[in-house]
Amino acid sequence: MSSRLLGVVRPLLQMGLIPQITLGIIAGILLAVVWPETAQSVSLLGQLFISALKAVAPILVFALVTAAIANHRQGQPTHIRGVLLLYVIGTLVAAVVAVIASFVFPTELTLELPEVSGNPPGGVVEILRNLLLSAVTNPINALMEGNFIAILAWAVGLGLMLRQGRDATRQVVNDLSDAISGIVRAVIRFAPLGIFGLVANTLADAGISALLEYGRLLGVIVGCMLFVALVTNPLIVFLHTRQNPYPLVFACLRGSAITAFFTRSSAANIPVNLNLCDRLGLDPDTYAISIPLGATINMAGAAITISVITLAAAHTLGIPVDFPTALLLCVVSSIAACGVSGVAGGSLLLIPLATSLFGISTEVAMQVVAIGFVISVVQDSTETALNSSTDVLFTAAACRSAEVRESA
After folding, report:
1. How many CB atoms lie within 10 A of CB 216?
2. What is the DSSP letter of 256?
3. What's the pTM value of the predicted model, to 2 decimals?
4. pLDDT computed for residue 342 by the predictor
């Protein structure tokens, strides 16, 4: 019996990670449709997978960034400046796409939902202030709470100081980084089981009935994200590298977007992205910094969500939106998106900030946020998939563009 079972399991174990994840998705859907009660009971698999990723991500980022900077030598290229430029351009372009789509496909909302709780930020200045304050948090608290801004700040500072340290000390930092990376690879091997549990539980809990009422709004949001992922992002990469971008785009979507869609957390997907960058052969000194940084500030999907839902609220209330205000919304939503915390639903509480541009009261804005939570089963998953896969895409584009310039 055991040999027969092993004969069935062995081909599955020999498959690549992406085919295994695909099978996990299919199995989760079938289980949720056929046995919804059982589907809810396997949610523990998904919870364990997400918890493991979230637990290892902070210490992994701290160790990788510290090791990368400590071992960096003067004159050794890192391409971070190019990655940051692409992050800013990509987020702003995504906001513009969302605004244009909202004018072409205007959406009305039913603002009769009960108010939801939350403390939205009062303005862009408050967001920037919070970002600065979070950067100087106690490092132990930062690791415990997953505060990646502070983790990056402390890792950069420690790495710079360790440049003057002994070779043996820097080797210890490298060994620690390698050991934690090994733990991450072990966790990622359980991704098919984790995603199976996440898919089954999500479909069993929400189904699709909750999404039908706001199908048009969801369609605009998801359509914008697909357009950015398949049109504008490839165009940005092409202009930067002068190479066919689609092989790289599809590699990032397969390797990063699938897991990000179901984890719904840019922070939890950091280990997956670091693993993908390694498989793509990118510069470790670059991606060790750019990937955790991207999980914090590269939020094209969040900019789309904020812009579309804000303009839907304005259209519902009959508020006219002129071109200068729409342009200002693009800038505000891009800046606000950088303040998204990198966890599920992080963009929704920033909607009141954007709606304040049109004089919409906080009470109404929070009702709009409630609608966002209704569609978040798909919206937030798609948003995270776009955000996280774009981190790898732009990192790869910057690295390959630099390699072309250096070889010319």
Report:
1. 14
2. I
3. 0.71
4. 45
